[in-house]
Specification:
It contains 2 helices and 3 strands. The chain has helices at 2-19, 49-60, and strands at 32-37, 40-47, 67-74. A 3-stranded mixed beta sheet has the order 1-2-3.
Amino acid sequence: LATRSSDTITTSRVKTSILGISNEDDSPGLRTKVVTENGIVYLMGLLNRQEADSVTNAARQVGGVQRVVKLFEYTD
């Protein structure tokens, strides 16, 4: 139960962090799904490579993140 609660908090923090990233028209954070399991953050979405790198770097800076796994489909 404690791990699941911690994962939920980590997911919320990562989502908050990536929503601050803005592109010309929209935020790549709005097009990114975040799932956390045992401290491992899975990032999924349809982004270009620069957006994916920005989202990944923002997720890595969040406390409680053990590892980040990128599962993006690139548009470029």
